[in-house]
From TrEMBL:
Membrane spanning stretches: none
Alphabetical list of HAMAP family matching this protein: HAM1_NTPase
Top-level taxonomy: Eukaryota, Fungi, Fungi incertae sedis, Zoopagomycota, Kickxellomycotina
Domain of life from the UniProt record: Eukaryota
GO terms of molecular function: dITP diphosphatase activity; ITP diphosphatase activity; metal ion binding; nucleotide binding; transferase activity; XTP diphosphatase activity
Keywords of this entry: Cytoplasm, Hydrolase, Magnesium, Manganese, Metal-binding, Nucleotide metabolism, Nucleotide-binding, Nucleus, Transferase
Function: Pyrophosphatase that hydrolyzes the non-canonical purine nucleotides inosine triphosphate (ITP), deoxyinosine triphosphate (dITP) as well as 2'-deoxy-N-6-hydroxylaminopurine triphosphate (dHAPTP) and xanthosine 5'-triphosphate (XTP) to their respective monophosphate derivatives. The enzyme does not distinguish between the deoxy- and ribose forms. Probably excludes non-canonical purines from RNA and DNA precursor pools, thus preventing their incorporation into RNA and DNA and avoiding chromosomal lesions. Pyrophosphatase that hydrolyzes non-canonical purine nucleotides such as inosine triphosphate (ITP), deoxyinosine triphosphate (dITP) or xanthosine 5'-triphosphate (XTP) to their respective monophosphate derivatives. The enzyme does not distinguish between the deoxy- and ribose forms. Probably excludes non-canonical purines from RNA and DNA precursor pools, thus preventing their incorporation into RNA and DNA and avoiding chromosomal lesions.
Needed cofactors: Mg(2+); Mn(2+)
Entry protein name: Inosine triphosphate pyrophosphatase
Amino acid sequence: MALRKLTFVTGNVNKLREMQELLHGIVDLHNTPVDLEEIQGSTQEVAIAKCRQAAAIIGGPVITEDVGLGFNAMNGLPGAYIKWFLKELKPAGLHKMLAGFEDKSGFAVCTVAYCAGPNHEPILFEGIHHGTIVEPRGPQVFGWNPVFQPDGHSETYAEMSDELKNKCSHRFLAVEKLKAFLSEQRD
Ligand SMILES: O=P(O)(O)OP(=O)(O)OP(=O)(O)OC[C@H]1O[C@@H](n2cnc3c(O)ncnc32)[C@H](O)[C@@H]1O
Ligand SMILES: [Mg+2]
């Protein structure tokens, strides 16, 4: 059976690389590198608005993704706004944000949105990975990977191989739900 074609609309090449690995052999994944406009709101609201825009641009089935990194000491902030904090503070600055707090715990959230096409409602698949915000360790290749050490692991995301990160990450957890949904649709 031919693989279902889906377009992943993202301007982030690292997200694309991980998503291609996660959906390998399951979906015929194409990319349109548009940096979609992001509204203010909860991660769910941001994800729905992004996916609607993407479906309108592509005119067919799409997925989009919105990622947040939340600090429990700050009731989940920066959350969906992590991109702007990371841009200005760099990973080391993210860790320093928690200097005045005892609680260094945090969580990575990946909200994958699927939309069958224009005029369809986006459907959300959320993966949450809990961990600790640490001093940066590992190569600075992708986002805030050097400061996030997931619970039960001694490495940060940046110190993990792509393979290991893809077996446990927020993105893996969200994509597992997307895969279950796509396979139900086939039956
Ligand atoms: O085009 P889109 O898909 O929106 O890509 P983006 O880079 O704008 O991504 P987001 O809006 O989701 O912003 C999330 C920020 O978190 C970073 N990020 C996303 N996934 C990550 C991951 O798995 N590990 C580390 N950093 C990540 C990403 O580089 C951004 O700075
Ligand atoms: Mg974005």
